[in-house]
Design brief:
Glutaredoxin; 4-stranded mixed β-sheet; 2 domains; about 50% helix; 13 helices; globular; Glutathione S-transferase Yfyf (Class Pi), Chain A, domain 2; mainly alpha; 4 strands
Amino acid sequence: MSAHARLPSVTHVRASRATARSTTTRTIVRARADAIGVLYDVPVSNNGARCRILARWLNLYEKLELVDPTSAFDGGIKGADFAAINPQMKMPALALADGSMTFGESEVINQYLLDSPEGRKFLETRGTTPESRATGALATRTHDLYIGPIQGAMYRGPMDRATRAAQVKELKRQLDELERLAGRVEGAFICGDEPTSADAAVFPTLIFCEFLLPTYFGWTEAFGPNLRRMYEAMMADEAGRTTANEVLGGLEAWAAAGRFEKVGVVEDVADDAYRWAY
């Protein structure tokens, strides 16, 4: 299957504005007593995608109601309504069904899911050595601390051209570090023969890299053979492939709408005074 081949996606639920306004940290109306809560997210979000992948692995996806906060709330994610759910005003965010608590940050949400009975059972068979668990934790931290802050160089703007070029260069360096980490433990995935939350964290961003870096920045390959092995294993996994479909659908919509021209990526990369391809 090609990197851009997609399966039918699962549609995100969109809350009405009236429903969204009544959703606070104290009151979350749920139709089902067994629901975990509301996951505020959009299909293209690579950070939200890591939660959707893990929820699917744990068979908890159907216990989450997915709501797009960009259209559900006045002011979108920068408005007061969403700020009451996540003061950082970023996606994803999880609001528990009983209204007792909300969580921002995708890794925190995933750790909450992993603390469920389904999550603890999942952990029993994955990353079973201290070395493999540490490798997965380091890959996750490398992604979150060093790639997350600069990944916008691939798709945001307008941006100072020199800054974009410097961040693309640093992105290459950090992808090389992930490549090294992905080769430390034998197996198709970062921690071995079975996928873990580390793969859920890294894989959605690799989708961005695979879609954007060769097409818009002229890279021959978006990442090396160790990450390629993991990427293909995730694409062969039903949850990984389904979630990839959601992310790719969003990226394709951005491209069709001319986003990369509008934010300056195309114009910036045309300037050969800077290096863009690695």
